[in-house]
Design a protein that fits this description.
It is a multi-pass membrane protein. The protein is an all-alpha fold. The chain has twelve helices and no strands. It has a domain of about 170 residues: MetI-like (MetI-like fold).
């Protein structure tokens, strides 16, 4: 067997350093969150315990941790559902060219290159000038959609670009209505992509800071609450909070992947049953 070239080890080293740079801060926070009651915000650690995790579930003198978590969770679910529905509708609409489709596509994607803080400022000004209250569930919701919808639409454009219309033609030949074709043919086929769009929508919303900064009103979402806590919390409780939010994010991703795997198994089982029936 030929020995590996020197460039392989160089690239492996660079990649390893990149992973350390990427996950090192998260690992450091996780380690410091397990300090004892006398622990501080830096190394060396002073004991090891679950004290600061227990402290999270007690009444906090500063901040609204669980209230902000609930708002972020609800907002993430709303953004996820809206992103999935609008992305599917947009993907279906863009399957055929129509007047102004190119311009509309560019306008949708343009929000990805506009600085997030300017989007937040603009949405806040629109609501203020319209006499509408600045609230995380209205203006914050709209500001976050400018971030999640372009990603969802790009995914759906790629999916429908490779979608074989023969499936729909076969359904129509069998007497299916347009809605039945979408419900029983199109949606089951693109179901894995729908899960991907939903995951994108939820995770992008859950940790969004800049686009929510000027649109959440008087009640913070979790990223804003954590940022505020960095100015007045001097104990490892903030590290414990960071560790729990990271674990929650990983659980959400794991739940989506598990759902995708179950759906793939059911689809494979249904295909094998149909083959045996034939």
């Amino acid at each position: 067997m030929d020995p590996r070239p020197r460039s392989f080890y160089v690239l492996a080293t660079v990649f390893g350093l990149f992973l350390l740079f990427l996950y090192g801060p998260t690992i450091t926070i996780a380690i410091l969150s397990f300090q004892g009651p006398e622990g501080g915000l830096t190394f060396p650690m002073r004991g090891a315990s679950l004290h600061w995790f227990r402290d999270l579930f007690e009444q906090q003198a500063v901040g609204d941790i669980w209230g902000s978590f609930g708002r972020s969770l609800v907002l993430g679910l709303l953004v996820m559902a809206t992103t999935v529905v609008v992305s599917v509708m947009g993907g279906l609409a863009f399957r055929k060219r129509f007047r102004g489709s190119g311009l509309l596509f560019q306008l949708v994607i343009a929000s990805l290159v506009i600085p997030s803080i300017l989007v937040s400022l603009g949405v806040g000004l629109i609501f203020t000038q319209a006499g509408l209250p600045i609230h995380w569930a209205t203006s914050g919701f709209g500001a976050q959609l400018t971030w999640t919808l372009p990603f969802g639409l790009l995914i759906m454009f790629a999916v429908f670009n490779r979608f074989d219309p023969a499936y729909e033609e076969a359904a129509r030949d069998g007497g299916a209505t347009p809605w039945q074709t979408v419900r029983h043919v199109v949606l089951p086929i693109i179901a894995p992509s729908l899960l991907g769009v939903g995951l994108f929508g939820f995770t992008l919303s859950y940790d969004e800071f800049a686009r929510t900064l000027l649109t959440s009103g008087s009640r913070n979402t979790l990223p804003l609450e954590i940022y505020g806590m960095t100015t007045n919390v001097t104990t490892p409780v903030i590290f414990a909070l960071g560790t729990l939010t990271t674990v929650f994010s990983l659980l959400v991703i794991g739940a989506f992947l598990l759902t995708l795997r179950i759906a793939a198994r059911r689809r494979a089982r249904a295909g094998s049953d149909a083959g045996r029936a034939v």
